[in-house]
Write a structure and sequence with these properties.
93% helix; rod-shaped; mainly alpha
Length: 75
Amino acid sequence: MNMMQPSRQEYEQRKELERLEKQDHFRIAAKMLEFVGVVLGVVCIFVLLALLFSLITWLDQDIASTFSILRTRFQ
């Protein structure tokens, strides 16, 4: 029976180490996914800001051309 006891302890230690390694891998994967999510979020924010500035520029040009057309018609 004493021969089996160290073997059982070794088995449990090995299983515990495997569990901890899996836990570490999941933590690393979760942190990587979180990082990728943050990067994609920042990219989306920049794309949306570019679209917003493009819309503002277009609106400014459209309003200017509309008023210039109205000005020429009333002269």
